[in-house]
Amino acid sequence: MRGELARILYERTREDVEYVFGDSIAALAEDADGVTVTFESGTVRRFDLVVGADGLHSHTRRLAFGPEERFKRHLGAYISIFTAPNHLGLDRWETYHALPGKLVCVYSSAGETDAKNLFVFSSPEELTHDHRDPAAQKRALTDAFAGDGWEIPRLLGHAADADDFYLDSMSLVKMDRWSNGRVVLLGDAAHCSSPASGQGTGLALVGAYVLAGELARAGGDHTVAFARYEQHMRPGVEQNQKMAEGFVKEMVVGSKWKIALRMFMVRMLPKTPWKNLIAKKIRDDIQAAANAVPIEDYDTGAAASTARPTVAA
To answer: How far is Cα of residue 31 from the mean position of the Cα atoms in its chain?
Structure first.
């Protein structure tokens, strides 16, 4: 789960990395020797490089490259996820409920006492609420599923009390370049592939590894490292974004008869002689996307004696 992954990464890096919580970058001023960063708290500091790893609505991207609207591509759907009591008693199991243009999924992983509620709904136009306003987001989700049956009213009731509530558009970020001077973007800030790809976290972690490796290989020369990082990552990113564009349409099937046909095919699949071939094809496609970026073993020994750049991320 995302929270557990964040805890693991923090625990592994907190001795070597300075973490500043509850603050954000407000302004960037680059010169030949570095970047002066002004934070919202009023603190002003100097860094060699700035890495924007702040997601789909990246503030760093806006400061260094321009408005979000220039780069975000809405895929026609919204997704919401939040933790709730596991009143369905799921144990390493997922339960789906499909409606025209909508999908609800409840799942619980091994060792979890709670469950995750996942809602997806079609929205050709982007919603107008502030994406940082949880109350407005919860109203938007409730409005989208108003009047729907099954367990939906009960599941929505848990949204009001959820402290990890998330709702956002399924969108891609497409940019001609991911760096500008001493500022470089990483993960969703650079190339969001949307939750429809299922690969956003993987691409972000692999991208961080590649960026660090290329900086070490280039001896800290960011102009060389940034170019190599993007060249290495872009083909795999584009493959995952293409997959997301197709898959989001499968998540929000538009009619009752298409849903009924899909459910019939799912029920019949275990009885067919070619079920293993179909399962293998699905698995292979997902694995190909997950491994679309080749992983190199970067030899950082030669760069170990080089002064490490100071980086604001």
So the answer is: 32
Question: In whole angstroms, what is the distance from residue 187 CA to residue 202 CA?
Answer: 9
Handedness of CA 56, 57, 61, 62 (dihedral sign): positive
Q: Which two tokens stand for residue 185?
A: 């973007």
Strand partners of residue 119: 80, 104
Which amino acid makes up residue 274?
W
Neighbours of 166 (CB within 10 A): 14
How does DSSP assign 53-98, residue by residue?
Answer: ---TT-HHHHHHH--GGGTEEEEEEEEEEEEEE-TT--SSEEEEEE
Q: Report pTM.
A: 0.91
Please report, for residues 74, 311, 313, the alpha-carbon distance to residue 300 in angstroms, rounded to integers and kept in the order given: 39, 18, 21
Q: Which phi and psi (to 5°) does residue 80 adopt?
A: -135, 140
Structure tokens at 225: 């490292």
Q: For 70-84, write each residue's pLDDT tens digit.
A: 999 999 999 999 999
* pLDDT (tens digit per residue) in 200-239: 999 999 999 999 999 999 998 999 999 999 999 999 999 9
User: For residue 286, which phi and psi values (nearest 5 degrees)?
Assistant: -70, -40
